[in-house]
């Protein structure tokens, strides 16, 4: 820690620890990865009947934009769920850094996501070839409850 000119203690930021796609496991969070976007497919969001509280608001709500993007590095690939502004960044061929990413489980398979506490930033093109034959989102997981006796 260091003291700034105003006398406030500043905490030194930790260097990000980059991990590879094949190190991702279900239910984990706080990952930092550098990945290439292989493909991006927009998902049509079906809006059910709006809630009463949203009808009271004067301005119309914008529908959420969602795209499922296949991202990966030299160890494998995983499906990344891009939301709203992230959809514009996730163009096929782009290299991005995902900060504070988490693993969401959807129908037994892993999906990578970055919520409002993380960042998706474009970086210079990476010099690795994406290993597309190791898709971690195709592995199906089952929740097992362990009963202790």
UniProtKB/TrEMBL annotation:
InterPro entries named in the record: OB_Ssb-like
Domain Single-stranded DNA binding protein Ssb-like OB fold: 24-122
UniProt cross-references to Pfam families, sorted A to Z: OB_Ssb-like
The organism's place on the tree of life at top rank: Eukaryota
Protein name: Single-stranded DNA binding protein Ssb-like OB fold domain-containing protein
UniProt source species: Carya illinoinensis
